[in-house]
Amino acid sequence: MMLEAVELTKQFKQTKVVNGVNLYLEKGEIVGLLGPNGAGKSTTISMISTLIPPTSGDVRLNNKSVIKEPSKLRKVLGVVPQEIALYSDLSAKENLQFFGRIHRLSGARLQKKVDEILEQIGLTDRQNDLVKHFSGGMKRRLNIGVALLHEPEFIIMDEPTVGIDPQSRNYILETVKRLNEEKQMTVLYTSHYMEEVEFLCDRIYIMDKGSIIASGTKEEIKNILSSENTVEMKVEKVQEPFIDALRLQPVVNHVTVQDRVITILAPKEINVFRLLFKLAEETNTVFTSVEIKTPTLEDVFLHLTGRALRD
């Protein structure tokens, strides 16, 4: 089974927020959709999940359009929205029962499914507690549970770990991985955390300004920078003249500064050490270490979009 978006475009008045997006999901894959804020990810997801109609283009399930008959896709699709979509004055169990009835589950079948989901998301012991008393991580887990009630074949997860503690985040990532491995569930996953994408995804689409600007496996994406090195410099103190001088160098790409760590991209054929130590001497910059690293997904993303993923 395959789900695909074909030349999806969405225009609001004079603004084109999604421009000719093509992507596909094959059974059993976890696919990442990355992009900085405002790239058009959420609008693309809304069109794929039939929540809003495209201005042009198509969404196809097994090569058949679902634009005019969205119910065919909705039967096999679960969506975990970026915002928590739960009733805070109901318990975890009551939320699952309510949404289960929307999916036309009832009686013993509904009860069995609710119990199964509570076990899957680790909330069996808290099933009778009101959602308003839950932590952010527990709400996120229940949000995922709601999307799993009707046993979807595809699930779209829009930044499901935003604003939660590391323990809950790891639990969610392991749950996604387990659903994929045990139930062959196909996942489209967006995140602001590159390490999540590294851990989960088979293939990746990178989106910016409404368009897909790169796609492929993790290794294929990293190979976009196969001719460049990532150079990481740790300094005693960040000197602004040194940063300014780096940014003026034609061979230096994408200077980023975080605390006392300065990272650049530079062509492999350039002896960048000679240049760096010359500039450091001229600006009274003292290195504590200088290290060349293999480009990461984050480096590629920065190279393609000019922004870090979380900007």
UniProtKB/TrEMBL annotation:
Which InterPro entries does the protein's record reference? AAA+_ATPase, ABC_transporter-like_ATP-bd, ABC_transporter-like_CS, P-loop_NTPase
- Give the matching PROSITE patterns: ABC_TRANSPORTER_1, ABC_TRANSPORTER_2
Query: Which species is this record about?
Result: Thermaerobacillus caldiproteolyticus
Protein name according to UniProt: ABC-2 type transport system ATP-binding protein
Residue intervals of the ABC transporter domain = 3-234
Alphabetically ordered keywords of this record = ATP-binding, Nucleotide-binding
Q: Does the keyword Nucleotide-binding apply?
A: yes
Source organism, top-level taxon: Bacteria
Molecular functions per Gene Ontology: ATP binding; ATP hydrolysis activity
